[in-house]
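Now for today's protein:

——
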Amino acid sequence: MIYKNLFKKNEKVLISFKWTFQIAIAIFIIWVFFNPETKLHSIIAISLMLVFYIFQSYMENRALFHKELISAICNSSQDLIVYKDCKGKYLYCNQVYSDTVNKTLDEIKGKTEADLFSPRDASLLNKISNRVLKGKVVKRKIKLKNGSKIYDITATPLVLTKGVFGALIIAKDITQEEILKDEIKDQEQMFRSVLMGLPIAAYLKDLDGNVTYENKMARDFLGLSDCDNANKWHYEEKRADEISKEDNEIINNYSCISREKIITLKNNDKRWFKITKCPIINHEKKVIGICSIARDINAEKTAAEQRETYVATLTHDLKTPTIAQIKALDLLLNDHMGPLNGEQRELLTLTKDSCNFMYEMLSTLLSTYKYENGDYVLNYEKCNIISLAEEAINELDAMLKEKKVTIHINKEGQNFDTRCDKMQIKRVFTNILGNAISYAYNNTEIQVDIKQNSAGICFEAKNESAYINPETMNNLFKKYVSHAAKFNKVGVGLGLYLSKQIINAHKGDIYAKSFEDNHNMFGFVLPIVNTIKNEAVIFE
């Protein structure tokens, strides 16, 4: 474009040179013809004229080639390209510019901004032209067409030795880019406003572990004062390794993590927080940062501790007199206080059964709360599943005799040894088998299948009892859900719930099925563990 403009500016020089050369040739030819001493004057004259026309044709074709080449380059550009003279009048524009103002190049030539644009737009463009024609390079963004279009304009003066002879202006339409930027800014502002209004501590970190944004509550959580620079904040040395390990896990695995921790705030107040961290992933599916949210759960923890203390105290205070009642009833039933008649013995037996039920219910309630608060530690030890099942069956002998129900065990496999918490797995056996006996029809048999497969050791107990509808089946393992009332039985709905938590804590699976032929089956799969791995229970 610059070369094209330079050619236009020097076009007069080329024309002057052409006429000067023609006059010189004419004078030389006249001199040759009228000089009698010169030989072959006609041939020389013709040769000189031929050389002149060849040279003139070459120069004009070269200029035309350059002009067409520059015009083609300008018209292939998506930007608006304009060339003005030193008075600010248009000398050239490309096709994109012509289409923008809806005029042809011939209609644009010799015009000014006032002839092509509204007064507002013409004023903006005139200011740029005036600065450029004074020798200044201008680069700025302006809004044209009443602000509906945004252009990034670069304007430069065209200078020769005598000064500025024109201006070259290139304008790029960046309307969509600016709209997108504004949308991104609005979304970012909305995101920040949401974070700022959250009743939790929320902050963002880059891949180097520096905090790049935090809301008001996060400043207290992170230990920052109003004058601190969040980008320079780093974790306490004692927590640095732990948090670095968590961040690497998030970045490498594209995973979220959630932890409950005691955090010391800047006022030295120690409080419980539940911290959730998630990766920030860009459009290229690369992690570019970490979003962290910390929720103050100190009140919840305090309430949970108070509840646990209350439950532990209550169950202890209730279990002590219950045990005393059971022992007293044993003395009476063993005739230590004198012989009993049949009615007395039956009445005392029922009372003892009620006391035993109360004792087991209190034990289940206490164990449930221990699991729920994550206070229970599984004590893995070597045991045999068959032996545990037989122990549970022996302890349920009174129920079996009362219902006139028998249990038959089918074994498939050679080795039923594993490592588990014996007391807790035995509790599961007792709950499942006790439930099967309690709801079984009288004078029936319970089939117990124990087999070993690739998933582990599988236990299933199938009895003959009333069909359980799907809605009830879906809720059987939930807390405080029981179908005992349907059969005029007593139950608090914690036995199966606790069994599920125990099996889940052992990384196993528990399930139940009901068949319309009046058969129900409860079972679980327990993975085989060969090494000791005592661990705290994570409750659902």
Q: What stands out?
A: DSSP finds 17 helices and 19 strands in the chain. The longest helix spans residues 41-76. Residues 448 and 539 are 28 Å apart (CA to CA). The radius of gyration is 47 Å.
